[in-house]
Backbone:
């Protein structure tokens, strides 16, 4: 698939996703306001998630990120809407990474709430005011870690500057060959119109392959944050599903309400994950 076609698909998905995100979440906020009196504090979580989804859609539309894999380097390339400095562009890219991590953290909090409501209702006190506000504070820890790693552990170096403009083709037994990744794969996008975060797993120096420890440490932090949130989601999700399926100590109406809210949560999270995955799926280039 050509780079221009890939960009067209990503931009189309962004436009469709932006429209659907605002349409669905504005409708949901309206329903929460008019019919959410019996949802307790859960309506605040739903409203916050909806507002964040719309904010994330705006960030996505502004930065129009491109994920690209070339040889040993993974690029997060953000397209600039305005003329900004390299540092501001880097901050923008790290902020996008923070939004990406927030989507997973908020999904985990939603599943924790449904787990408490269905399996351990006595723990719902941790979702009452003022304890409710501790959850966003807790989410800020992994989100800040993700964004900080993206900014500080993947600095712009001479090697990455060379890589983003002329991607190194690794041939240890031959001379190194370079090709312009933007010109080759994304014709029309100029270096001055993008900012990037480059994940360089290893590189060659004086003909020897060297592992980029700093970047691998950042990848470990990313992996830890993502795997932890997914473990929480799957554990709470499965436990909630099992309890709703087996529990006989509540009325049919209560069980049905739990079932409907759980299905709505699963659908909301699946749509979010699929949408994000479609937009950030990297376009691999052939290793030559």
Residues:
């Amino acid at each position: 698939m050509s780079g221009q076609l890939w960009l067209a698909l990503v931009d189309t998905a962004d436009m469709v996703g932006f429209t659907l995100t605002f349409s669905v979440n504005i409708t949901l906020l309206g329903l929460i306001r008019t019919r959410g009196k019996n949802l307790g504090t859960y309506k605040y979580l739903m409203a916050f998630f909806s507002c964040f989804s719309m904010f994330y859609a705006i960030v996505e539309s502004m930065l129009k990120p491109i994920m690209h894999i070339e040889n040993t380097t993974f690029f997060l390339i953000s397209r600039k809407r305005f003329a900004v400095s390299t540092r501001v562009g880097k901050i923008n890219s790290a902020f996008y990474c923070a939004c990406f991590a927030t989507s997973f953290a908020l999904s985990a909090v939603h599943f924790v709430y449904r787990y408490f409501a269905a399996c351990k209702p006595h723990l719902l006190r941790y979702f009452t005011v003022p304890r409710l506000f501790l959850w966003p504070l807790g989410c800020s820890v992994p989100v800040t870690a993700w964004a900080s790693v993206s900014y500080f552990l993947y600095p712009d170096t001479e090697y990455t500057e060379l890589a983003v403009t002329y991607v190194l083709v690794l041939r240890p037994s031959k001379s190194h060959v370079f090709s312009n990744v933007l010109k080759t794969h994304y014709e029309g996008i100029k270096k001055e119109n993008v900012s990037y975060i480059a994940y360089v797993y290893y590189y060659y120096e004086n003909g020897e392959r060297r592992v980029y420890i700093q970047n691998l440490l950042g990848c470990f932090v990313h992996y830890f944050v993502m795997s932890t949130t997914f473990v929480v989601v799957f554990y709470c999700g499965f436990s909630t599903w099992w309890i709703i399926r087996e529990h006989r100590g509540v009325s049919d109406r209560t069980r049905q309400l739990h079932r409907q809210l759980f299905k709505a949560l699963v659908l909301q999270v699946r749509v979010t994950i699929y949408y994000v995955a479609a937009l950030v799926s990297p376009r691999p280039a052939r290793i030559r």
Remarks:
- The two ends are 17 Å apart (CA to CA).
- Confidence is low (pLDDT under 50) at residues 168-178.
- Residues 86-119 form the longest helix (34 residues).
